[in-house]
Amino acid sequence: MDHSQARDSEFVRSLYSRYGRSVLGRVLGLVHGDYQRAEDIVQETFLRAWQHQDSLDPDRAGPWLHTVAHNLVVSAYRKIKARPAESPLPEDEGGEWAKGDGDLELDRMLERWQMLEAMRGLRPEHRAVLIEVYYLRRTVAETAEHLGVPVGTVKSRCYYGLRALRNVLEERGVTSR
């Protein structure tokens, strides 16, 4: 290990020995006792401290570490909430999912075809956002970064894209108001 690696290692070790317990305790409270999640957040917090060691005073790092940890918890929560709610599959009472019933497969194929045709009827920018958010399951922020547009634009395009999609499906008689 060279001198700079030893210095880096010592920096993180000293910060952790000094503030690790208090940061972990705070994060545990924020994540409702989920120890594994708390450890992950604490690890990310100290990684960020290591990345900012040139501008971080070890004697005054406690509030900074607690703020970073708090922000990581909030970001993780927002990321979870940004995803659309998942819909459970219907119960398999008659065994039709297991059998691979031909009629069920045909229905699924027709639904996919109808959705594909409806998506083709949307403006390209609306279609791109809906695919990113609902099919690729990216967050609004991830979609904004991927498409190179502001977050507000993604939200607006989602709203208007879903509205347009509903109208297209209604026009084709797939759904009703």
Automatic annotation (TrEMBL):
The keyword rRNA processing does not apply. The keyword DNA-binding applies. It comes from the Bacteria. Residues 15-80, 118-167 form the RNA polymerase sigma-70 region domain. Keywords: DNA-binding, Sigma factor, Transcription, Transcription regulation. InterPro entries: RNA_pol_sigma-70-like, RNA_pol_sigma-70_dom, RNA_pol_sigma70_ECF_CS, RNA_pol_sigma70_r2, RNA_pol_sigma70_r4, RNA_pol_sigma_r2, RNA_pol_sigma_r3/r4-like, WH-like_DNA-bd_sf. NCBIfam families: sigma70-ECF (TIGR02937). Belongs to the sigma-70 factor family. ECF subfamily. This is RNA polymerase sigma factor. It comes from Streptacidiphilus cavernicola.
